[in-house]
Amino acid sequence: MMRIDFPKLALAAAIATIPSSAAFAQQSGGAAIPQTLRAAIESLKTGNPWTLEQQQSICEIPAPPFKEADRAAELKHRFEALGLANVRIDGEGNVIGERRGKGSGPTVVLSGHLDTVFPEGTDVKVRREGTRFASPGIADDCRGLAVVLSVARAMNDAKITTPGTILFVGTVGEEGAGNLRGVRYLFQNELRGKIDYFISVDGAGLGITSRAVGSHRYRVHFAGPGGHSYGAFGMPNPIHAMGRAIAMFADIQVPRSPRTTFNVGMVRGGTSVNSIAAEASMDVDMRSESADELAKLDAKFHAILDSALAAEKHRWSGSKAPIAIAVDTIGIRPTGAQADTAHIVQVAVGAGKTLGFTPRTGASSTDSNIPISLGIPAITIDGGGHGRGAHSPDEWYDDGSDGYLGPQWALLIAAKLAGVK
What we know:
The chain is an alpha+beta fold. It is 34% helix and 23% strand. The chain has two domains: 11-212 and 335-417, 3-Layer(aba) Sandwich (Aminopeptidase), CATH 3.40.630; 214-333, Alpha-Beta Plaits (2-Layer Sandwich). The radius of gyration is 25 Å and the shape is elongated. The two termini are 40 Å apart.
């Protein structure tokens, strides 16, 4: 496992390169950067190679679903080296470090997720050409983790103090079947009642996820006795029943606004071409920004399962062979209402304008789903640069000429929410 040294920046030289606060605001069209943050902001630009080194090295530590422990241990080491207080790995596997406030300001979480979607044994060696890095997980979410580390480093080196406490976190279980287990644990156990604002850094770009897309995911099992395709012909067929369900499900009409979607993503079953299957299954995903629309879609889906089962039994009404359906929940991700006028969203938009860009807001399914569903202000921001191919072996990240804007943006948002005027 690679270990990284943490040399101090030459802050005096960095400060000398920063334009005046008023000049920066005039150039960017946003508010002025507070004097107390200017050295840290500039250090994130001059220290950008260090950020990229973090991104590459931590990405080469495998973190398959439910097996993030090695990457978590290394993140804990790096948090400790950066001078964070009370660094620990909690009961679910999340890594937490603190930069304690000097007053009674709010508590802010700045977080990236540790896990990837890739199975154990995936080659995660990073291939680099100039500013472009290629590896599974390099943007989602090695970029987020690198941003979290860089913000912690810049604040430590510049000796920034904030009225509120900033918690630097690496969560487990953000992807897929992980079902947001890490962030759920934070809000239900480890940090319950202690978080005022939550910021997740996830992926590349300069956008804001301000609204939570909820999801219901199920694995549906169809089962019967099975038999020979010729000799046992005339009995209910689990694969046929599943086919009926899929066809009816595909015909559901859903609203475009609020955006609501559905998908059968995986199907399984059968043993041979000349066998009536004894079992079959399908994995189903349903999503919406609206809790009401998601609930309506869910109810329609379960009604379809009953109809498909009844139709298959009726087709072979002369058979006494049984057929049944069982539904397992893969994951439930809550949604929740948060307007783009919310303070946390406006702080993020304002911080972007200060740095010279205007971020767009949108909806997605991220770690922020949990706090938003609880009524706690939360956003997920991109980490800068550009990326493509998330969740594929061909995933890549390109830092371009201004990838440092991602860490700068995260620092401004966190500091402002923690009470820096």
